[in-house]
Write a structure and sequence with these properties.
Blueprint: E1 6-11, H1 15-26, E2 31-34, H2 41-46, H3 48-66, H4 81-105, E3 109-111, E4 115-119, E5 122-125, E6 130-138, E7 142-144, H5 152-155, E8 157-158, H6 159-162, E9 171-175, H7 179-190, E10 194-198, H8 210-223, E11 226-228, E12 232-238, E13 244-249, E14 254-256, E15 258-261, E16 265-267, H9 274-277, E17 300-302, H10 313-328, E18 342-344, E19 350-354, H11 357-363, E20 368-376, H12 378-383, E21 388-396, E22 402-408, H13 412-424, H14 429-433, H15 445-448
Helix pairs in contact: 1-10, 3-4, 3-7
The chain binds flavin-adenine dinucleotide and nicotinamide-adenine-dinucleotide.
The site of flavin-adenine dinucleotide has 36 residues, from helix 1, helix 2, helix 3, strand 4 and helix 10.
Length: about 450
């Protein structure tokens, strides 16, 4: 008999935590999990899933414009935000139920409580009880970071709030130039809001290939999304009519109906009791872990956004899965962070895997070859939508190996998942050339670039 209540206790039922709990239980461990908000975590409740559903909803705005040239005459077009918001919320409820069922079916005990480390092997729960576990996994994720600017805390919203808005703002300023800023800029714009992105530097989507970012910016600007670069917020004030006056540094002051902060996410470590065990944290409060996701305290592990390695759901899931396999199935697994594909679900979306052109140039000493295809998707041509796609393949000139693929255009993330397999497998440009095109598709461009 174990002297602990559980073999494994997971704090946080999000992407990483749920996977770790389920796999550990499937290996025969006695598992408990604590969730302070809703099972499913950021991705399911207020991230990837509801965001993608809003992206789908927003896309109809373009489809309804484009369909005219395809012979459709749709009368009485109108958009009802409350209807979409509530359908999305309903789907999220359904998914949360499925996640709970999965945990239950695997005999994982769910504690609907906030959990904190109490010292040693003990975890304190907000219902006043406490439990002990041989191993503890911290999978508490991250939360939106809102800088300390006068009026921001009271008047700005963050991505969590978007899914609950009573009404769409007529004018919205979005702070930040990353994933969330560009995704929500596309969503709000398609729904008819006037969108202004305010970025503190002179570029968006740092880390993505420069040409893809430029193309997104150019398309977004043509659509009517405004960008203010090298700009900062000095003060946010609510006016009598409910609108916000933004006092700016670097650009003109603005009047908007909503201000969304999308300036990064910070590890959720506040009040977690890390100090009780001397668990080390690094930059921005991220819990420091080794390649096995083990902290400096032997029986405490951490996965996902709280470790700030790559803040993506599939990464958190892999990390959680590996911890469970290693602890309860005697495996020796680490997560491979090379060639993790990623996408920005902007309008149009960007997708990427491997090195950008400039990264490859730096790392491979300039001996690279770059192939690009700049084209208008067939559907856009007939629709009269003057929006060009751009695909890029970066190769190591010495070996012909494809080291990066970057795309912006319709369905780029769907195409990228398959292309990423080829890059991860180390295929050469010649392998792409040897593959017969699948016609007529957009993805055939990947095997036609010469
Ligand atoms: C708007 C948005 C869109 C996104 N879109 C994508 C996307 O398209 N693709 C993608 O791959 N990634 C996306 N992400 C990122 C993705 O959601 C995260 O990387 C992922 O959810 C991280 O998983 P996690 O397990 O580390 O944490 P989370 O999923 O955040 O789970 C942590 C859980 O812990 C709970 N918790 C925190 N503290 C405690 C405590 N003390 N006690 C009990 N419970 C606690 C939280 O309530 C939460 O449920 C998006 C994020 C956001 C915000
Ligand atoms: N499609 C996806 O996979 C997806 C979607 C959304 C979020 N995510 C994950 O969530 C994380 C958080 O997303 P995010 O968009 O908040 O962060 P991010 O790190 O992508 O972007 C933050 C942006 O805010 C800017 N910024 C920071 N402080 C600022 C300030 N004071 N004023 C103005 N701009 C400022 C930064 O320069 C940067 O451009 C991402 O890193 C990503 O890993 C992924």
């Amino acid at each position: 008999m174990s002297s602990y209540d559980y073999d494994f206790f997971v704090i946080g039922a999000g992407s990483g935590g749920v996977r770790a709990a389920r796999i550990a239980a499937s290996h025969g461990a006695k598992v408990g999990i604590a969730e302070e908000y809703r099972v499913g975590g950021t991705c399911v409740i207020r991230g990837c899933v509801p965001k993608k559903l809003l992206v789908y909803g927003a896309h109809f705005a373009e489809d309804l414009e484009d369909c005219v040239r395809f012979g459709w005459d749709v009368e009485g077009k109108a958009f009802d935000w409350a209807k979409l918001r509530d359908s999305v919320a309903h789907e999220v409820d359904r998914l949360e139920g499925l996640y709970r069922d999965t945990l239950g079916n695997n005999d994982v005990t769910v504690h609907d409580c906030r959990a904190t480390l109490a010292g040693g092997h003990e975890v304190a729960l907000s219902d006043g009880t406490s439990v002990t576990a041989k191993y503890i996994l911290i999978a508490v994720g991250a939360r939106p970071h809102v800088p300390d600017i006068e009026g921001c805390a009271e008047h700005a919203i963050v991505s969590n709030d978007v899914f609950k808005l009573d009404a769409l703002p007529k004018r919205i300023a979005i702070a930040g130039g990353g994933y969330i800023a560009n995704e929500f800029a596309g969503i709000f714009h398609q729904f008819g809001s006037k969108v202004t992105i305010v970025q503190r530097s002179d570029t968006i989507l740092r880390g993505y290939d420069e040409q893809m970012r430029d193309r997104l910016m150019q398309i977004s600007m043509t659509k009517g999304i405004d960008f203010k670069f090298n700009s900062h917020f000095k003060k946010v004030e609510k006016q009598e009519d409910g609108s916000l006056h933004l006092t700016m540094d670097g650009c003109e002051d603005m009047e908007v109906d909503a201000l969304l902060f999308a300036t990064g996410r910070l590890p959720n470590i506040e009040g977690l009791g890390l100090d009780k065990l001397g668990i080390e944290t690094g930059e921005r409060g991220a819990i420091k872990v080794d390649e096995y996701s083990r902290t400096n305290v032997d029986h405490i592990y951490a996965v996902g956004d709280v470790t700030d390695r790559i803040q993506l759901t599939p990464v958190a899931i892999r990390e959680g899965h590996a911890v469970a396999d290693n602890l309860f199935d005697g495996q020796d697994r680490t997560v491979d962070y090379e060639c993790v594909p990623s996408a920005v679900f902007s309008h149009p979306p960007i997708a990427s895997v491997g090195m950008t052109e400039s990264e490859a140039r730096n790392k491979l000493g300039g001996s690279i070859k770059v192939y690009t295809s700049d084209f208008r998707a067939m559907k856009n041509v007939l629709a009269g939508r003057n929006e060009r796609s751009l695909y890029k393949i970066v190769t190591d000139a010495n070996t012909d190996r494809v080291v990066g693929i970057h795309m912006i255009g319709p369905e780029a993330p769907e195409i990228m998942q398959a292309a990423a397999v080829a890059v991860k497998a180390g295929l050469k440009k010649a392998d792409f050339d040897n593959t017969v095109a699948l016609h007529p598709t957009m993805s055939e461009e990947l095997v036609l670039m010469r």
